[in-house]
Design a protein that fits this description.
By secondary structure, this protein is of the alpha/beta class. It is built from 11 helices and 12 strands. The strands form 2 sheets. Strands 2-1-3-12-11-4-5-10-8-9 form a 10-stranded mixed beta sheet, sandwiched between helices. A two-stranded antiparallel ribbon has the order 6-7. The chain starts with 10 loop residues before the first strand and ends with a helix.
Length: about 350
């Protein structure tokens, strides 16, 4: 892992600002990343920017060029701001950019760490008590493109959407989750809905138990997703690692982001663990077009996502210092309005950079 990026004299990062506040927060993250590696003495990062997203779609009829994936394939990592705009349907923006990247580069792990940082208030947890990770299957499951519509617009209209669960896909995400739990507190909860979904979820449960036989030191259990969501709200401190299918993992990771105080601080990593392809790092908040260009967007999620990028690139110490600087900034009172403060995007970014340079 330490050799990642060093083989080519540094890490090459493709930057896709995207839409709304995306360019603002991702550029803030780029500045912090540059400072973190400079202070740490790590090999330099190089950034190449691509103007893809909804604005590109409005002009070209595509979210990215036809050879977009071929262009991105030569990079070590992808750093994304946010995607979405009111005049472009969500399924167009998602299926035109983010999902092709996830699937084209086999980024089958969506990793969402959850902590309550100092300086961030949550009605459900106290700082220092919340530390869990949600592992979400990221390339198949309920978010398949299989199905269709017949007799559209008539009383006989039929709509079918199919879920696709493969043994390979389920086994590898569960094995990743067991490994993650093994390296943490050794507790794993699998999200299921086998009491209502009679084919795919019982299969998920079977494979969960089969893979679990390889990890006797991990305390593993299955929990129905609705009950799990309630438990995450009522007792979030008791969880260590949660793993779920594409849909269930997506929903539960939004719950945990809210538990951590604000969606604006939550990061996400879309990983190809084998490193055959670049992985993608992004904040999980949306493009927030209502505040785009006002300079008040919270850059914390993008900055935290940058720490995951550094960890994946083999520079964990730089990533840890970067996250510590962000937490010190928030605890010191420099926060955007969504966190109860009055600081601008620029002020939060500069405060994080100053703390990195002063340590």
């Amino acid at each position: 892992m330490e050799d990642f990026g060093q083989q080519r004299g540094g890490v090459r990062i493709a930057v896709i600002g995207g839409d709304g506040i995306g360019p603002e927060v991702v550029e803030a993250g780029v500045r912090v990343l540059e400072t973190a590696t400079e202070v740490d003495g790590s090999p330099p990062l190089s950034f190449t920017r691509f103007p893809w997203g909804c604005e590109y779609y409005i002009e070209h009829g595509r979210m990215m060029p036809e050879d977009g994936l071929e262009t991105l394939a030569d990079f070590d990592a992808i750093y994304l701001g946010a995607v979405g705009w009111p005049t472009v349907p969500d399924h167009v923006s998602l299926w035109g950019l983010l999902l092709p990247i996830r699937r084209g580069f086999d980024q089958y792990v969506n990793l969402r760490p959850v902590r309550l940082l100092r300086g961030v208030e949550s009605p459900l947890a106290q700082p220092g008590t919340l530390d869990l990770t949600v592992v979400r299957e990221n390339t198949e499951g309920e978010y398949s493109d299989a199905g269709g519509r017949m007799f559209s617009g008539t009383p006989h209209e039929v709509v079918i959407q199919e879920s696709v669960f493969t043994r390979r896909g389920v086994e590898r995400i569960l094995r990743y989750a067991y490994e993650e739990a093994k390296g943490r507190r050794g507790l794993l909860v699998g999200a299921t809905k086998s009491n209502g979904i009679s084919i795919t979820m019982p299969f998920f449960d079977e494979v969960f138990r089969e893979v679990g036989e390889e990890y006797p030191d991990v305390g593993a259990s299955l929990m129905h997703a609705d009950a799990l969501a309630a438990r995450l709200v009522l007792d979030p401190e008791s969880f260590d690692v949660v793993v779920g299918s594409n849909l269930l993992g997506d929903i539960l990771s939004e719950v945990t982001a809210a538990v951590s105080g604000a969606i604006g601080i939550a990061p996400s990593a879309n990983l190809n663990p084998e490193r055959d392809h670049p992985s993608l790092f992004e904040p999980i908040h949306g493009s927030a077009p209502d505040i785009a260009g006002e300079g008040i967007a919270n850059p914390s999620g993008a900055i935290w996502a940058g720490t995951l990028l550094l960890e994946h690139a083999g520079y964990p110490e730089a990533g840890e210092r970067m996250l510590a600087a962000l937490e010190e900034t928030l605890a010191g009172g420099t926060r955007t309005s969504d966190l109860g403060g009055s600081a601008s995007t620029e002020e939060v970014t500069e405060a994080v950079i100053e703390r990195l340079r002063s340590h």
